[in-house]
Amino acid sequence: MINAIINGIQIQVEQGTTILDAAKKANIKIPTLCKHPDLDPTAACGICIVKIKGSDKMARSCCTEIEEGMDITTHDAEITAIRRTVLELILSNHPNACLTCIRNQNCELQSIAAEFGIAEEPFEKILSEEKIDESIKTIVLEPEKCIKCGRCVQACQDMQNVWALSFVNRGIKTKIAPAAEFKLAESPCVSCGQCSAYCPVGSIYEYDETSTVWNALNDPSKYCVAQIAPAVRVAIGESFGMESGELATGKLYSLLKRMGFKAVFDTNFGADVTIVEEATEFVKRLRGGEGILPLISSCCPGWVDFMEKFHSDMIPNFSTCKSPHEILATLAKTYYAQKTNIPASDIFMASIMPCIAKKFEVHRSKEMYASGNQDVDVSITTRELVKMIKQTGIDFAALTDSEPDHILADYSGGGTIFGVTGGVMEAGLRTINYLITGKNLEKFDLKDVRGLKGVKEADIRIGEHDLKVAVAHGLGNVEYLMNKIRAARETGQNPPYHFIEAMACPGGCIGGGGQPRNVNDAVRNLRINGLYADDKNCKHRNCHDNPQIKQLYKEFLGEPGGTKSQELLHLYYRKREEYKSYRETDFLF
Q1: Known catalytic membership, residue 124
Q2: Averaged pLDDT, 73-78
Q3: Which of 150, 460, 514, 538 could form a disulfide with 413, with the two C-beta atoms 3.0–4.6 Å apart?
């Protein structure tokens, strides 16, 4: 332990603690712009400077470890004046476009400028003339607003190992862009959106498609339906004064009906179908049928994109099962359309997702048109829905709960935990156990695959089989598992795992690139706990026990993995160019 003094207060912290974190423990807030709890300090902004007694220079608290006996001053007139000057210099390179910025009232630069009472700009404005890059149609880069904090570069390179973004040029011409100043559509970008989640200003954000939804809702010829992903219900309330992790499922059903959707479904139902199909596929492979092991989950479009670009040798291992929202959309335009006598061509399906990559997934290949139409017409993020709610004037937090359209909305506990890292694995093992033994697990909670550890490995005994499973979240962690598989192949050994779950975003979908911002592990854990609580409160904990799922197979699909399921609910993969992001007809057929 280290003993020191901060602003006259005696503190004791663990060795290796930075001055910034030590100050937090003493309930002292040091302002920052570039530092984020998930990322290594870069000391890029210079706002977190402090004085250390005996030193003739100021230290940047985000990257300076506290030492025994340090006497630190975090606030005085000189420090405040320097911080103000740094802010004024940053603002001299930043446009005064707050009223038209997507981050208005939710911008870290705007907030800190207000805290310092910045009322005038003493320095000449020198703005970038770089054009907005929306070439990929999922993520938008607006270079003029970039403050060069480097968070997005860290997220893209170190956390995700994608390397779509880099620092380009030097000095005043420095900017964040793909290498060689290419467009995003010419980069390795997989649209995971983590860059936008960490951007403190309005320089990186999701491609806005709210107008597409409003236009459909105002078109009397369209029968508008919506579905909500599991992770949305434990995060959206944060934007309306609710606690992180607080379930808002019933409120979302009420909201969407008041907005004008004719039917409201739940992606958790699609997750139940996904598990029934994927578990069936796994058991066939385990018993020596078609396909090889390990089976790798395929419900995360960012991971699928990454796999097709950089790990195409793993295509034979990938589950062919579509993601839950694509499955539900296909069923809405086939099964639901038949039962209600509504032409599939009239149905407009809006998916509300925690994910930016879903914007690409909805038209990534011909399999996404299994109903004869584009199955998902538009995918919007949680953040986009928040914006739409505010436009309606509806008091979201005050809404009472209502029911969805049960035919494609009733779900099991296994379906709702799809939103957390390890959830697909846990739900899958519950059903795999039933398919192998004919019995349900006595204890549904498989805690070995839970939590925020980057890679989780477990041994599970099911019937006569000793299964080795692994879970990874964050694309950098997924690389570790892929390399282990390759090493075993090269040496002629058995695969190190039987079943793998991979998610592109830290924490899984609850930490998706389209979720409300200002996320850290504490927030992720609250969201995770909300979904596990939902799981425990479900009447049916197993996907295969959902009565509506049983009815679906009886009336429409036939047996899991059968001909109709393969036609509607499964897809194929192909190797893709590493430095090109496909859009619509480029990759459709």
Answers
A1: no
A2: 96
A3: 538
CATH assignment of 211-586? 3.40.50.1780
Top CATH class of 91-206 equals: alpha beta
Which residue matches tokens 């990929």?
136
Q: CA 229 to CA 226: how far, in whole Å? A: 10
Banded model confidence at residue 180, pLDDT cuts 50, 70, 90: confident
Catalytic annotation present for 367? yes
Among this protein's residues, is 281 annotated catalytic? yes
Measured from the Cβ of residue 34, the count of other Cβ atoms closer than 10 Å reads 24
Catalytic, 299? Answer yes
What is the reported pLDDT for 581?
Answer: 65
Q: Where are the domains of the chain?
A: 2-75, 91-206, 211-586
Does the annotation count 144 as an active-site position?
Answer: no
- For the stretch 317-334, pLDDT in tens is 999 999 999 999 999 999
pLDDT at 582: 58
284 is catalytic: no
107, 149, 321, 509: the catalytic one is 509
Return d(Cα 570, Cα 561) in angstroms, integer: 9
Residues 6 or more apart whose CB falls under 8 angstroms from that of 395 comprise none
Q: Per CATH, is 2-75 categorized as 3.30.1330.50? A: no
Mean of all residue pLDDT scores within the chain: 95
244 tagged catalytic:
no
Q: Which of 186, 246, 281, 501 is catalytic?
A: 281
480/512 Cα distance (integer angstroms): 21
Catalytic residue among 61, 203, 319, 379: 319
